[in-house]
Amino acid sequence: MRILQITSHLNVGGVTSHLLSLSHALAARGHQLIVASGGGQLENGAGAGGLTHWRVPLHTSVEFSPQVVSAGRQLAARLAQRPVDLLHAHTRVAQVVAERLSRAAGLPYVTTWHGFFRRNLGRRWWPCTGELTIAISEPVRQHLLRDFHLPAERIRLIPHGIDPAPFETPVDSSAAQRLRERARVATAGPLIGTVARLVASKGVDQLIRALPQVRASAPEAQLLVVGDGAMRPHLERLAASLGVAEAVHFAGALPQTRTALSLMDVFVFLPAEQEGFGLSLLEAMASGRPIVAVRRGGGATWVLQESGAGMMAEPGDPAGLAAAITRILQDGQLARQLGEQARAVVKARYALERMVDAVESVYNEVMRD
């Protein structure tokens, strides 16, 4: 099957990681994969491993932007020279492009909803949901039913999946040491960690506010923040104002998180309100990290409540977050139990092969229809 995957950009993040892992797995099964995007930090990954990348002017979140019209025209011209069987859109602007291409060329298309969205005029007038729509979690499926009135028979629930094997392989000690030196993380003391974009919706400030209480019980505890964004200067000033600047370490955005996760004694998952799942949560689970998640966004709550593989803290409650982290740091048996259970859940429910099987079934269903 010849498949065109469409997304806004290929910057570091959950949508890009999902799209690339899915595309590489499909290519390994003999499908022909083309990825169309506005480019980004991980663009090289879209032109390797059997994939072809078409760069188009689609690095926007505005569905009626001139970029969307231009991207649609460029893709139509390319498809006239290199036809495909199916389109798969992963962001709102990609959905709009896929709808235009579908109408013009008679191509079937599938969409994946990676989160929660406002039912604005554009989405009401022009839903662009495709022949079938993939929801990445049960809360997202309910969102589609309740807020967008999408018929249940047109929705397929397919949670994200990852290959757990790399996260079970011991990390090279020299790579771990280089990361410690780069982020200035001391070798002594427990390390709390998170992987998140440094934007207000993620609530990294709440984790920093929790750190003084954690250090009251574990004075050598440190925090490693993997990710970057506009909030970084503010977060650095906040750490300084709380007297924990020397214990908060910013590693910046990393294309792979395996090494950073291997250093963490506790992983804190900070979902945004509109986040439907969170691949960093699965990666931490596959790494066998004990997890504390903030109860926000629906996706993480759904994953952890279904499995019992982590502890939950309420949003806007740094004291409660600190208490959950401290409990894990002080109870080695609990930490091991949570880590082992998290790893087992990923293998049983969120393996990459299981996800690819399900997506491939959706493609086949659409092509048959």
General description of the model:
The protein is an alpha/beta fold. The protein has two domains: 2-161 and 351-368, Rossmann fold; 165-349, Rossmann fold (3-Layer(aba) Sandwich). It has 15 helices and 13 strands. It has helices at 14-28, 66-81, 92-105, 121-125, 138-147, 165-168, 173-183, 204-217, 232-241, 258-263, 279-286, 299-307, 318-330, 332-349, 352-368; strands at 2-6, 32-37, 51-55, 86-89, 109-113, 132-135, 155-157, 191-195, 222-226, 248-252, 266-269, 291-294, 311-313. The strands form two sheets. It has a seven-stranded parallel beta sheet with strand order 3-2-1-4-5-6-7, with helices on both faces. α1 (14-28) crosses α15 (352-368), α8 (204-217) crosses α13 (318-330) and α11 (279-286) packs across α14. The longest helix is centred in the C-terminal third of the chain and has 18 residues, at 332-349. The two termini are 15 Å apart.
